[in-house]
Design goal:
About 40% of the residues lie in helices and about 20% in strands. It contains 9 helices and 9 strands. β8, α7 and β9 form a beta-alpha-beta unit. α3 runs parallel beside α5. The radius of gyration is 15 Å and the shape is globular. The N and C termini lie far apart (about 35 Å).
C-alpha cells in the first residue's frame, strides 16, 4: 500500500483516486485549495497532479517544501484552449509542463504519464479494442519503476508501458494533445489513446 495524494477532484483526479483506492492504496483527493493540497502532499509518498495544466506550475511551486523528496506524477497537459474550449495551442512550446515542473522543483522526482488518452482509458485501458500505450518520461529511473507499478495497479499490462527516457521526452507526449480536438470532432467523446503500432 502506498500513500497517494491526488491534487484535483475533477473527472481525471476522481477516477484515478477511485481506481487506486480499489487497488489497495491509501488515497487523499484535494481540490485546488492551497491548504488542503499542502496537507495532503506533506503526508503522501506519491503526489498526482490532476489539476488543469495551465495553472499547474504556479500551484505546485507553491508546494515546493511539501513536494521535496516526493514522486510527482504529472498527468496534465498545459494548453491554451480555442473558442470551443478544446486545446488549440501548447502553453510551453519547445518545452513541456513536466520539464517546467522538474526545473522549478529540483528536489522532486517528476514523472510524466497518462497524458495521451481520454481520461476513461487511464483507469480502464482494456476498454479499447487495440492495445494502448502509456508513456513514461522522467530523469529518475527509480521513480519511473514506482509509477510503472502504479500503472499496473490501474490495469496496464507491462508491455503497454513505454519508457521514453528523460523528462525532456515529455514535450513529445504533451504535444500529442493537439490530436485530441480533431479526434473528438470526428468521433465524439469515445475513449481513445495515442499508441505506437508495433
Amino acid at each position: 500500500m502506498t500513500t497517494i495524494a491526488v491534487l484535483g477532484n475533477g473527472r481525471v483526479g476522481s477516477s484515478l483516486a477511485t481506481a487506486l483506492t480499489r487497488a489497495g492504496h491509501e488515497v487523499t483527493v484535494t481540490d485546488r485549495t492551497p491548504g488542503a493540497a499542502a496537507d495532503a502532499a506533506r503526508t503522501a509518498r506519491i503526489v498526482i497532479n490532476a489539476t488543469p495544466g495551465d495553472g499547474s506550475l504556479d500551484r505546485l511551486v507553491a508546494l515546493r517544501e511539501e513536494l521535496r523528496g516526493k514522486i510527482l506524477v504529472d498527468v496534465s497537459n498545459a494548453t491554451v484552449d480555442g473558442p470551443d474550449g478544446l486545446p488549440a495551442h501548447l502553453l510551453y512550446p519547445g518545452s513541456s509542463l513536466a520539464e517546467q515542473l522538474q526545473e522549478a522543483l529540483p528536489q522532486t522526482r517528476v514523472v510524466k504519464t497518462l497524458n495521451t488518452m481520454l481520461f476513461p482509458v487511464m483507469t480502464a485501458p482494456a476498454v479499447l479494442t487495440q492495445a494502448p500505450d502509456a508513456f513514461l518520461s522522467s530523469d529518475d529511473p527509480q521513480a519511473k519503476e514506482t509509477v510503472r507499478d502504479l500503472l499496473i495497479d490501474l490495469g496496464w499490462r507491462k508491455e503497454w508501458i513505454a519508457d521514453l527516457g528523460g523528462i525532456q521526452t515529455a514535450r513529445a507526449t504533451e504535444a500529442a494533445i493537439l490530436f485530441v480536438p480533431h479526434v473528438m470532432r470526428s468521433n465524439g467523446f469515445e475513449p481513445f489513446a495515442i499508441s505506437i503500432a508495433r
